[in-house]
Amino acid sequence: MIDNGKLVGVLSMRDLVRDIISEQKFVIEQLQHYISGSSG
């Protein structure tokens, strides 16, 4: 990442994949609760 012309951070593919998997797990859990009729 660049801020005002300075390098302030770097993302690796591992970081991106980990974030995508985490989001997908959350969505799957929410859908499972919805399908099973649980609330909360």
Description:
It is a single chain. This protein has 40 residues and is mainly α. The protein has one domain. The mean pLDDT is 90.
SSE blueprint and pairings:
Elements: E1 2-3, E2 6-7, H1 13-36
Question: What's the short version?
Answer:
With 40 residues, the protein is mainly alpha-helical. 60% of the residues lie in helices and 10% in strands.
Q: Uncertain regions: pLDDT < 50 for 5+ in a row?
A: none
* Rg (CA only): 17 Å
Count of discrete domains = 1
Could you give the order of the helices and strands? EEH
Number of strands: 2
Number of helices: 1
What is the percent of helical residues? 55-70%
Features:
single chain; 60% helix; 1 helix; two-stranded antiparallel ribbon; 40 residues; 2 strands; mainly alpha; elongated
